Amino acid sequence: MADIDLVTADRVNLVEDFGRQKSLVAASAITAGAPVYITSAGKFAHADGNGSGTTQPWGVALRTVAAGVAVTAVRVGVMDGWDLTALAFGDPVYMSDTVGRLGTTAGSTSVVIGRVVPATAVSLGTTPDKLIEVDVP
Amino acid sequence: MANQVLYGFQSLQNVYDTLVTEIDVRQVDTAIARSIAQHNEVMNGILSLFVQTTTEFKIIYRTLGTARLQPIDADGRALPVRGQAQYSRSFPIYRGAHAWGASYEARLQMTVRDLNDELERAFQADRNWLRDHLLSAIFTNVNYTFVDEKHGSLTIVPLANADTETYVKIGGASGPSTSQHFLGQAGGIADASNPYPTIRTLLKSYADNTGNVVALIPTNLRDDTENLANFHPPADPRIRAGVASDTLASEPNVQTPGEYIGYVDGVDVFEWQQMPDSRIVAVTTGGERPIAMRESEVAALRGFQAVAERADHPWWERQFRRMAGFGTWNRTGAVVMEIGDASYDIPTNYQAPIA
Known about the structure:
The complex is a heterodimer. Chain A is an all-beta fold. Chain A has strands at 13-25, 35-38, 44-46, 59-61, 70-80, 92-95, 102-103, 112-119, 129-135. In chain A, strands 1, 2, 3, 4, 5, 6, 7, 8 and 9 form a nine-stranded antiparallel β-sheet that branches. Chain B has a seven-stranded mixed β-sheet with strand order 7-16-12-8-11-10-9. Classes of the chains: A mainly beta, B alpha+beta. Chains A and B meet through β1 of A and α3 of B.
């Protein structure tokens, strides 16, 4: 299991939305790009693949926020901001066992957060950029 | 680096750093529309050296045949001569799009300058896409099949590549013959291996090519071209030429991409930095254009257009698109030469079809 880092800390971008997002208060500090689940208090918190009650993410957080602050998570959409060089187009992106991280392989509970898709606004002959098409089950 | 102020935004320079939301929306819409119209006009002008536009998917290209007076006596008369050769030309059509987006807050914080810069980036995307497709049509030296949604499989032919199609040369003394317009020379550009006379002679051999010969070269060929003994740079108005020096008397009056660098052996040479290395592309300024640009038969689908906005609060995006395709029209209307390789190769990434 290798966790996927952000290219720039605390920065992810929503490239294309598909109308599936939700804004809730953060139960604890949340990092941009983290998979989040909905707590029993109706708040977002970091999800992870080997926790208890934290293994079913709702979406991916768009911002880094402190506890008590609202944050929007995207359930379906195309997002940018991760270092995806280790992955190929079409590869799945998983929820990691590391709290609040995405990973290249399945965690103890296997959840596919999305897949690597190409961004084609590049010069002729250049390999497309890699994005994640998030589609949380 | 600051982007240029687009044509439609010239009148808004006094409010350049003002929020778009504080400007009359009609002024903003007008600025965008005028900028797009001017962009299309500029692109059509630049492309006109290479292309003629069409909305047809297939046209018959007619070229002069060859003829000679038929010998007669006092009672004789000639038989009618069917003097034209005709060939079918098909053209592809592709689509390209660009978008910019913003969140609700980002959009409200957008200044006129930001809007100008986003539109300039859209224009840059269009220029790059058009350039790539035009050069692909010029550089590809083999047939390929384009599957048209309405008209089925179309064969797209390249410039003359010594296939079975024949052409009549000026003078018409001999019959029509095949021609090869994809050339290569092993040596670099030098006085002993000067490609420009060969290029000029080949282009001017055909009646369909008139006017002056213009060559576009990449940066890596500029120094060697300028070092040719017969090369003449454009006159510099700040330099008074000596009595023993030749000075170029005039510059060509032609709209092209790139920078005019001078004249050599009957060819006006332009450096176009976006050209792939080691390829010369030459055309004439008059006569039938080598390439046809196909556009939609529906007028509203022609040119580079702002076509839609997509709002799903808090996310908003504006979409642009173009439909166009390039195919050979006058197969003897251009010459492509590769320098440093006796056998012509299609530059990397330019073999048609491209996306």
